[in-house]
Amino acid sequence: MGKSADAGRFIVPQNDSRNRSGHFFEQLGLAIVGGEINREHRQFGDIVNDELSLGVEVKAGDSNNGLGIRVGQKRMYEEVQRLGFPYSHFAYLLCCYVNESSPQKIRGKRSPRPLSLLKNKWEKYSFFARDVNKVFLLDLAVMNALEKKVGITTCRHPEREEEEDIRIRRRELEPFCNGNGTAYLKTLGLDPRKWLIGKYDLGVSVEIWDSESDGPMYYSPRFPFYTVLPAKFHHKFQKLREFIPSP
To answer: What is the pTM for the complete model shown?
Structure first.
């Protein structure tokens, strides 16, 4: 992918009591975007960066299920951005990872997907560190355009009541990767002259502390990172984060 950049490092701490994959990707997002994790004011997103006046919502999903965007949550970000305070920009960090099952069938059924076989949260964190394969930072206006394209569905969640979702599949993101991003922006109703699509070969260092082992596990994943941001803000983001775009 040409020149590369290092986003930094992060630690998944030993005393983390939450058993959810979202924690790993929040830490990954923090290494990429900078700023700090937001735990107090959920209307501003998972990560806030005061220097960029940016709120970021982090979502992760595999190639089978895509990424679920909660409509009610997104409307909240739209209202804060409309007011322009305390953050004037919002974006979604979409993290994709590989979780393919074997093509071989067992007793007429497809073999289970690897992630479903992991019971220990530290094993899951290690899985994500090895298998994250693409990350996107999409401006809220791009997410609005994708919402119009794919529509809204009603979903049931194990831990929440039935709610409206926007389901983003890989096919909705692929044009930003294969060189067709400019034409794709037009189909989404956005003026390509006002947008920039960035492409980076990004690396991070991950330190995972397993409470059942004597020391940390270290990983150094590299993956393509794509940004679709307003041109002026894109330059500001790139300069502040010191990323080198790939040709």
So the answer is: 0.86
